[in-house]
Amino acid sequence: MLSRLTRSQAVAICALPVVALLATAAFAPLPFSVAQPGMTANVLGANKGTQVITISGAPTRKTSGQLRMTTIEATGPNAQVSLGDVLGNWFRTDRAVMPRDAVYPSGDSLKEIERHNAEQMQQSQDAATRAALKYLDLSGDKVKVRLSLADVGGPSAGLLFTLGIIDKLDGDGSGGDLTGGRDIAGTGTIDAAGKVGPVGGVALKTQAARRDGATVFLVPKAECSDAKAELPKGLRLIPVTTLKGAVDSLVALEKGKGPVPVC
């Protein structure tokens, strides 16, 4: 004959499957990636011993100041992210928990992702070169630009590449540096017509920029609210939608004349 269970025993036995389920969920892989501020690189200088921008066919100028492209680093597409990882990073201001599909194309292998990012980087560099030469009214048949940035993929450095080419060829248009000698960072895609597009991860990129000494950050206007969410102290945001707008803002900032947009 079975003995009658007390209420406390019954609750304890019923709780066992729940505890087991929670324990399993805590360690089971989830479809998320954890991102953090990544490296930055001054496109006016060298990265890993190689000049980022090399120009032939036209005289270039010596620049001061910096134009820093920014990145984020995320757990790999095959990394195991658990519930514990998600909860542990959810409320951190220097981390972002993002759907894996938002970081990596769904279903792609690591090699496919690397190839995709490399293609996007090449397309971004080509568009940046065309946009810069068009802005300066220079011929791509005469002026040749080579861009080199190791171990970075994707299109988000397009705006900074373009500004770097312009600064090396023309500066602010009157002999001065486009940067005004400042350490300026930013992010944004660009097309050959000079339109600036959003990129994602800007709250983490502003942290990377300030960590590496930037005091001004160029952000696609559509992402102003994201950039302001965790804006580091001492970093000024300038929203941009076009290449001309970005150049005009930097010149106004340098000369102290004219309006400088704010988010």
From TrEMBL:
Signal peptide location in the record? Answer: 1-28
In its UniProt record, which GO terms are filed under biological process? protein catabolic process; proteolysis
Q: What is the lineage of its organism?
A: Bacteria, Bacillati, Actinomycetota, Actinomycetes, Kitasatosporales
Give the keywords, sorted. Signal
Highest taxon of source: Bacteria
Molecular functions per Gene Ontology: ATP binding; ATP-dependent peptidase activity; serine-type endopeptidase activity
**Database matches in InterPro entries:** Lon_proteolytic, Lon_Prtase, Ribosomal_Su5_D2-typ_SF, Ribsml_uS5_D2-typ_fold_subgr
Q: Which stretches are transmembrane? A: none
Start and end residues of each Lon proteolytic domain = 154-237
Which Pfam family would be a valid example here?
Answer: Lon_C
Q: What is this protein called?
A: Lon proteolytic domain-containing protein
